[in-house]
Design goal:
Number of strands: 0
Shape: elongated
Number of domains: 1
Family: Belongs to the major facilitator superfamily. Folate-biopterin transporter (TC 2.A.71) family.
Subcellular location: Membrane
Protein name: Major facilitator superfamily associated domain-containing protein
Largest sheet: none
CATH architecture: Up-down Bundle
Helix content: 55-70%
CATH topology: Growth Hormone, Chain: A
Oligomer: single chain
Strand content: under 5%
Structural class: mainly alpha
Main location: membrane
Distance between the termini: 80 Å
Membrane topology: Multi-pass membrane protein
Order of helices and strands: HHHHHHHHHHH
Number of helices: 11
């Protein structure tokens, strides 16, 4: 049998060695020896992103547009579908469900952008496709005439159907409710489009966040979600103050029409794409 020297024996795991290794790990020596070579503990090369750079500002504008549409579209179902068109409760509930349904498919959108690159890019083409879909739906809704409201005289809304006189029935636009279905579908496709753009933007944010050192990691996420939340509030305020006329079930003497509101969104979205 050969004679083994101390230098010939490969280090083996034992209770004592495990104890020593755990002590080294707890003391921080183990991490210092095996940590990522990238400065500051960043997970990706490229240096920390500058929020004032062109790329980051473009990303912030993306989330501003997403927040604005996210704040406006769901807020129109009650004043426009329910009050203006007098859509049924089922149609209004369906509209609210379909507007938020695309958010449930974010993982599939992410798989699509990760696994099916277009023209060598995984994010930009899908982001552009999402905005084109959303913008197209907004333009269609802006160009479609909304027609007369169900109650051409707002005071008739407070009268029970059993108390309708022939005069009241003559001035009620019973055909208005039949227009609700097409608006529900257009809103759904618009939501699917901007959620696709949102998923691609989220993927870019993850890549940016991985470039951040440990001390400032999360700065990019905080910035983009702050911008999105602010513009959600702006969208809801826009709908609350400018879409609250008597025809839409509100008390104001002035109001934007639904096509005008869609034009505002389309113009702002077009500026965002530029």
């Amino acid at each position: 049998m050969g004679i083994f020297h101390k230098g010939d024996i490969i280090g083996r795991s034992s209770l004592s060695s495990d104890t020593l290794q755990s002590k080294d790990f707890e003391s921080g020596n183990h991490f210092k020896e095996h940590k990522s070579p990238i400065h500051g503990g960043a997970l990706r090369e490229g240096g920390p992103p500058n929020l004032l750079s062109k790329d980051c500002l473009g990303l912030l504008v993306q989330y501003a547009a997403i927040g604005l549409i996210y704040g406006v579209l769901p807020a129109t179902t009650y004043p426009f579908l329910q009050n203006y068109l007098n859509a049924s409760g089922t149609q209004v509930t369906t509209a609210n469900t379909l507007l938020f349904l695309p958010w449930s498919f974010k993982c599939f959108y992410g798989i699509l952008s990760d696994c099916v690159p277009l023209w060598g890019y995984r994010r930009r083409p899908w982001m552009v496709i999402g905005w084109i879909i959303c913008l197209s739906m907004l333009i269609i809704m802006a160009c479609m005439p909304a027609g007369d409201p169900y109650y051409t005289v707002s005071a008739d809304r407070d009268i029970k159907p059993a108390d309708y006189t022939p005069e009241i029935k003559a001035r009620i636009n019973f055909k208005a409710a039949s227009q609700a279905a097409k608006y529900v579908m257009l809103m759904c496709f618009a939501a699917a489009g901007y959620v696709l753009a949102d998923v691609c933007a989220d993927s870019i944010v993850v890549e940016f966040a991985q470039r951040e050192p440990l001390e400032s990691r999360g700065k990019t996420q905080s910035a983009i979600y702050t911008v999105r939340t602010v513009f959600v509030i702006i969208g809801q305020l826009l709908t609350g103050f400018c879409f609250n006329g008597e025809k839409y079930g509100g008390d104001f003497d002035f109001s934007l029409t639904f096509p005008q509101l869609m034009i505002i969104l389309a113009v702002l979205l077009r500026r965002n794409r530029m």
